[in-house]
Amino acid sequence: MNLQQYLVLEALASDIPPREIAEILNLETHDVEAVVKSLEERGLVRKSPGLFGERYKLTEQGEKALEEWRAKIRSELAKAEELFKKGREIEAQEIVEKWLPILPILLGLGVISLALWKLLTSRLPVAEE
């Protein structure tokens, strides 16, 4: 699974419909629908009837894949946190920069805590003008 698929899976787990996922991730709706279809073909999500139309629900396999990605992200960010504490800021920044574009999304979806967000982003260098 790639990063885009992970983010769509994470959003689907929060019961966010594809149209809204497209807005959150700044993608075209048809692109999100293509990702959802690939997740469905892989057995990670299934269509489920809902009060306001069809929704997608994670399968057991989808839940497992989601937890594996969450564990990977949390592990890497925890490693960055430890490196910051040990004064190894360059190594820590390399890890954080890998995840930086999606940190706001991870925070919004509850994958990372606000405390971790503040620690990770407060240590990044500020661009000079």
TrEMBL record:
Keyword Membrane set for record: yes
A Pfam family hit: MarR_2
Transmembrane residue ranges = 99-120
Q: Which SUPFAM superfamilies match?
A: Winged helix' DNA-binding domain
MF-aspect GO terms: DNA-binding transcription factor activity
Q: What is this protein called?
A: HTH marR-type domain-containing protein
**Keyword entries, A-Z:** Membrane, Transmembrane, Transmembrane helix
Check the record and name the InterPro entries matching this protein.
Answer: HTH_MarR-typ, UCP032673, WH-like_DNA-bd_sf, WH_DNA-bd_sf
- Identify the residues that the record assigns to the HTH marR-type domain, covering every copy: 1-48
Name the species this protein comes from.
Pyrobaculum aerophilum (strain ATCC 51768 / DSM 7523 / JCM 9630 / CIP 104966 / NBRC 100827 / IM2)
